[in-house]
Amino acid sequence: QVQLVESGGGLVQPGGSLGLSCAASVSISRLKSMGWYRQTFGDERQLVAVILGDSIVRYADSVKGRFTMSGDNAKNTMYLQMNNLKPEDTGVYYCYAVQLTASGNAEYWGLGTQVTVSS
Fold first, then answer.
1. b/e per residue 25-64 (b: at least 16 CB within 10 A)
2. pLDDT tens digit string along 45-61?
């Protein structure tokens, strides 16, 4: 069982920056993949950034060049640095992880943290 706890959301003006954190209850180096999704009211969750087994971070086209995902193995924490934020970045941001188990892949989600970009 993996627990994920997001933090760092809030209200920011367009063009501003915000950093999110996702603390995992296990070593993140042992996870098959981790990532960030966001969801706007009424829409499905959309991928923001994900890192797979090849250690390459993949970003949604809408956030490339503005968002950076990173991790700290010592702290079992993943981060999402968001710069030059736009109103369309508003949403609930969820941390996501996949753990390889004896019975297959197990997916885990955090409870989410709200990000609001507005003047």
1. eeebeebebbbbbbeeeeeebeebbbbeeeeebebeeebe
2. 999 999 987 788 999 99
